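Re: weekly structure request thread

Next one in the queue (873 aa):
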Amino acid sequence: MKILLTSSLIGVFMFFFGFALKAQNNTYTLSNDSLVNFHASQKRVYTATRITDRPKIDGKLDDSCWETGIWSAGFRQQQPAQAQEPSQETEIKVLYDDNNLFVAIRCYDDEPEKMRPILGRRDDFTAGDITGIALDSYNDKRTAFEFNVSAAGQKIDLVHLGAYSWDTNWDAVWYGKSHIGDSAWTVEMRIPFNQLRFADKEEHVWGMHVWRWIDRLAEEDQWKLIPIDAPAMVYIFGELRGIKDIKTKRNFEMLPYAKAKVVAGDDGSNNLGFGLDGKIGVTSDFTLDYTINPDFGQVEADPSVLNLTSYEVFYDEKRPFFLEGNSILNYEVGRDQLFYSRRIGHAPSYSPDIEKGESLKMPENTSILNALKLTGKSKNGLSLGIINSMTAKENATISSPGLSKTETVEPFTNYFISRVKKDYNEGNTVIGGLVTSTIRSIKDDNLNFLPDNSLVAGVDLQHNWLNRKYFVDVKSFYSTVGGSTEAISKLQRLSTHLFQRTDASHLNYDTDLTRMSGWGGALSGGKRSGKFRATGTLAWRSPGVDLNDVGYMRQADFIEQDITLRYQVNEPKGILRNYYVNLTQENGWSYGGEKLSNELDMHSYFSFSNLWSMHFLINRDFFNVDTRQLRGGPALRIDSRTGSEILLQTNSTKDIFIAGGIDVDFWDDNVSESYEYTFHARWQINNRLLLSSHTVLQNRIFNHQYVTQMVVNNKREFLVGKIDRNTVSTTLRMEYFITPELSLQYYANPYASIGKYSDYRIVNESQAKDPAKRYTSLAVLEGGSSGLLVKPLGPETESFEIPSTDFNFQELRSNFVARWEFRPGSTMYFVWSNSRSNYENKYNNSLFDSFGGIFDVKPQNVFMLKFSYWFTL
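Done, posted below.
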């Protein structure tokens, strides 16, 4: 393993060194590359004007204060015709007083009847024509706060995180309105300084970016041109000057809430709840967010999934407290995350067994007692993010006639996360670190299977050079988890580790351990801008590393290497608007040096002049050994696979948008195959009403599906079968906006999956290329008592029983939300949640009968009224 890791590191370092040497031996400046980069390299400066009379924010720009200051025009197209004159003129003016920044943008249009003033959800970039401003108030060339308003008056705000990464979950309290005139639409904004982060100084110089999106033309115009193939944005911003003597104020924001909740049904309940969210401006740079007894009842439900793999399903975070400012705390390494906020407030870890005649009532999630989050960035480039959260001890109630008892299902737990980053060299070099800690107060014997403490520490370094065209990114982390011998033994057996694998000499399952430790990391870099791009990554996880107490890790025990070559053209030519082609080669090994995978992928994308687009992908798995498929058994060889996918999309700026595609996979065993059909439709009925649907239909036949493991004739055997699985999932949305602040939204996700197993086999020589040597076939007999009676083929073999494996799963998750933001930051919600779920071990031979039968399943209805009021001290 050491030789393998060393040789892989040398190969990746040579790859990066070759590009660095090429870059250092060629003089590179923006001003001599092209007309595009010439405009991008020109410095643009705007000087704001101080005023004393505050304008009324209505979008009309008829207040007397707008007669002062300077209108600035000279926008350039970023797309489709970079650096060319825009099709429509745009101009901006910036004013300020002691407490606010005022922004006016006038968007001229010589075809006003074709403007697209579409109302949509906050932070939805599909809302027609949009214009906005981004402010690098730190002036760190990496991060910025952006404020946008659509032609219909909908607000969009976000934080730039560097490169092309944004956090749209950041919601500031600010004011923005639009007004549509005869030959232009105009926007007026008031941005309180207390919603920004900046250094305490007499005079400020901030980065500034102003942009406009003309939806019908798919055209973006910019006040200071940023080339579309630039590796990042903020470092190319123009400058905003003239802001002097603004008062730094320690902001105290409070958002108390009250809710009433009713759960309908036989086991329904009613309850009232209260809580408090808020912010404290510790300094002008750092903000402390806090929440006490938070409630997230208005948050959209997670999509339905029936997971037949050994990997944990990853769900996106949707809770506002953990979303906002989470960018500073982000530490991703490939598919893994050192901080995965969904761990805080997760479903209880233990579910008690009940006897016949008993009923069980459990909380759906662990209650969050409180959480504190400190985030910010100092004037010298030091970013800091800290979260501490406590979750409650939870109990389940077991009831029987005349008797009721409680049992602990989750201990009191404290979570701590700390992230720090420091910018050097004008943001071209960033050094950072992260520490997480989880401590559980385990006082009940039935919870001894849980670790009582864990600690993870990581460091990272990113360096960019030659206008961020080239980069190298290094991340490494260490984890240690402690607990009882029962807890660490279970942790070793989980699918993320599988220390009990019988064919892995580098793994040692130790039932006496009370602590497990390990490390991991990734090294990546290359060239990421221009027509030709090349990047590479080497990633590794030792067998004992574990992040899953407050992070997310799919599996340990691997080394992976990939190299991606990309050719991208952003200049319109003929029928093409832009296109790119990616070629990716990947290899994988276990930490003990076992070869696991060898894959080659090609992905091409074409955008056409009529604004239609197409994706085409083709890939080949030349070699695949799965160490997780048998859930602790030996690594199983999966036959090589060839796959292809095509996706075609119509013009997304039209009222009716349609996209459809097919993804096909064939395995070399001539049995396994998969067909997945995707269909997406969006109908903008008018400027206020939107209907959309996204449907996925999959038919998958897989010849190596894990069934079970059991002791047969004093030997542990691992069984696989051929599964014929059909799945349909539809996501439906209806959004009706009465005003930008008052909306009705409906979300529904009906899901059905049916599966039938056949051709049961015992795994014999798990990595044999010949399936006849790899497996021993089983015959299904009559007479199973509760499952299936099977026996190996042959006259001298004995029969045994395996569990029934066929299934029919139906689920519906839906939310209806009426939302009214009656003043900035203050909101009233009415929420109706309807959910239905049914799983049975029998096969329904019609997928669409199963899908249609969802509404025959007994529902659970939850109704909630929630009121929150924002104010500042």
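Confidence is low (pLDDT under 50) at residues 1-33. The helical segments are 2-24, 35-41, 320-323, 326-329, 485-493, 771-774, 847-852.
Next request, please.
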